[in-house]
Design goal:
The chain is mainly beta and 160 residues long. The chain is 14% helix and 39% strand. The protein is globular, with a radius of gyration of 15 Å. It holds the Pfam family NUDIX.
Length: 160
């Protein structure tokens, strides 16, 4: 499966996160995740990034650059790809959005918020872990870096 995740910064360099109960197991299993999701057939990854952020948060964005391409090998041998982008808010109204894969009675998005780098250190259950450290160093730099990441799949992880 191909997907996107979008690191969205506001004008004060706060990072946008979506609180999700995607396993539908209650508050103790909720995670804060970078907005994103699957790329639809025939859709470009940048367009998927814009669409996913709008669906989940109500915000319009401009994709600034590609940060990473993450390749994850599943236990069954399949390989998933995810493009991680950096974006800025250009409009819209911040609001708890929806996941079109779920009907309205079973939505998994519980909240949306912007967090400062300092506040991020106090948030548990964040995905991906790069939102806690590596992203902040990269976002503030114009330097080139290797955007390719390869790892075994860990699914939705957290660092507590």
């Amino acid at each position: 499966m191909a997907g996107v995740r979008v690191f969205v910064l506001d004008e004060e360099d706060h990072l946008l996160l979506v609180q999700s109960d995607y396993k539908k197991q209650g508050p103790e299993h909720m995670i804060w995740v970078i907005p994103g999701g699957g790329i639809e057939p025939g859709e470009y990854s940048r367009d998927a990034a814009i669409r996913e952020v709008k669906e989940e948060t109500g915000l319009d964005i401009r994709v600034e650059r590609l940060l990473w391409v993450v390749e994850e090998k599943e236990p069954n041998g399949e390989v998933d790809y995810c493009h991680y982008f950096l974006a800025e808010v250009t409009g819209g109204q911040l609001s708890k959005g929806y996941d079109p894969e779920w009907d309205m009675e079973n939505q998994v998005i519980m909240d949306v918020q912007f967090f400062s780098r300092e506040d991020m250190s106090k948030v548990s259950n964040v995905y991906p872990e790069a939102a806690l450290d590596e992203f902040w160093d990269l976002a503030g730099s114009a330097s080139t870096h290797d955007p390719w990441r390869s790892r075994p799949s860990r699914g939705f992880g957290s660092r507590k």
